[in-house]
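seq:
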Amino acid sequence: MKNTNKPKVNPLSRMPRQQRLIMAIRGGAGVGKSHFVSSMAEAGLGKLCIFDTERKARLLRGVGQTFDALEIEQSDELPEFIEWAINGEGTEQNYGCFALDSWAAYFGAKHSEMIEAVREKTGDPLAQPSAEELAADQMILQSVLRKLCIESGKCVVISDQIAAKGKEAKEDNEIGRVLPMTASGLEYFVDVMVEVSLQERDGEITRVFQVVKSNSPAFEVGFEMIGNIGFKDFLEHMKAEQALELAFDKPAKSDVPEFIEDKTPVSIAPPKMTVEDLVKKAEENGFKRADIVTGAKVYHNQPNIHHLTDEQIEDLDRRMTARIEKTKAESNTATTTNEKVSNIKRAKVA
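struct:
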C-alpha cells in the first residue's frame, strides 16, 4: 500500500552543499594501496570504516584504534555490511568516511561463483559466461559500488588490483571489454582513478601516484604525486584548486526547506453551541427561554437545560431552526397571497 503520509521532498534542497572525493586506487601487489586506504583516518574526515575483503587490515597500524576494519569472510556479506554501516545500526558509530579494500577480491570471488554456476549448469568444465550473463553479473555487482559511493554521501576510497601489465589490452581483444576484470565498472562510480606504482626517480625507488581517469577538474589525467602520499594530500590539492566552492568540513547553509509544505487546507471544526447560544438564538427569532425548557423536557426528558449534552443541544437547535424556516416560509406565502388579493381589488376598481 502506498504511504500517502510520506512528505514530499523538495528537489531544490538536494543542491550540492558539501564537497567530497571518491577515489579508486589501483596497482600491483605490495605497492602500498592498503596503506593509502588507511591514511583516510588521518585526513580529518571523522572515523574511518574499512570493508576488508582481503582480511589484511590486521597488518595496518591503528586498526581498532584510529579506524575500524570489518573483515568480510564470505563475499555475500559485503552488501550486508555496507547496508549496516550506512543505513542500519552502524550509523551509531558516526563513520565519517569509508573504504573498500579491495574491489578486486570481492569481484573475483563473485565472478568465480558465476563461472562455477555456468559450468555446473552446462556440464562443461571449460564453459565461459556469455556476454549477456557477464553484463547482468556486472549490474548486480555494481549495486555494491552504488550504495557505497552514492548513498553514503561520504568520501570513499576503493582499492583495486592490477594483476599484470598488458592484461587489459588482452581482455579488449578477447571479450570486447564487455566486463573488464581489472576495472569491472569501477571507473563509472569514482571521481578520480589513480594508479600507484614503484618507480625509479632520481636514482631512488619511490611511489608514484598517477591519475589515469578523472571526472574532477582538479585532477587532470597524467597528474602525478610522488613519495609517501596519503588521502589528505589529494584533498589538500583539491581544495587548493578550488574546483567547486563547497566546503569539505560541513555542509553549506541552505535556506531551502527539505520537504515541500502540504498546502491542503485544514478543515476547522465549528465551535460547539452552548445553552446560552441556544437561548440567544431563540430570543432573536421570537421564541422564549421557556420554549427551550419545554423542548428539553419533551424531547430529551431533561428539566434542567444546563444539564443538556452537546448532542441534545444540537438536536434542539436543529428543531428550532426547522421551525424558524417553516415560519418564514409561511409568512412569505401569506404575503404573496395578500399581494395577489390587493392586485385583484385594484383591478376591479379600475
